[in-house]
Amino acid sequence: MASKLIQVQSKACEASKFVAKHGTSYYRQLLEKNKQFIQEPATVEKCQELSKQLLYTRLASIPGRYETFWKEVDYAKNLWKNRSGLKVEDAGIAALFGLECFAWYCAGEIAGRGFTFTGYYP
């Protein structure tokens, strides 16, 4: 156990040195490659304008999302009506999806409690 800890520490140290050595060049390359998305000068007014654009773009996408949601519900209803034709693989995939949803719910609850398992902080 202790030898594994030492190995992990040495790997973390190597990774830290690599990031310290190459991190700034990667950062510069990333910014250069995506400079068309950078707003200059970054003023408060420009940031507010961009946030409004994002908000109203998201609001404009609600009708499409609503329609897609009801298509998915209709598909699920159709599957339920024709459940006698389902294969075991389909049922297994559905069960795994449900289990994954429950796991994400539990992880969210734990994070919401401040990463405690027993209860919320007073």
UniProtKB/TrEMBL annotation:
The lineage of its organism: Eukaryota, Viridiplantae, Streptophyta, Embryophyta, Tracheophyta. Keywords: ATP synthesis, CF(0), Hydrogen ion transport, Ion transport, Membrane, Mitochondrion, Transport. One of its GO terms (molecular function) is proton transmembrane transporter activity. GO terms for cellular component: mitochondrial membrane; proton-transporting ATP synthase complex. It comes from Capsella rubella. This is Mitochondrial ATP synthase subunit G protein. InterPro entries: ATP_synth_F0_gsu_mt. GO terms for biological process: proton motive force-driven ATP synthesis. Its main location: mitochondrion. The keyword Methyltransferase does not apply.
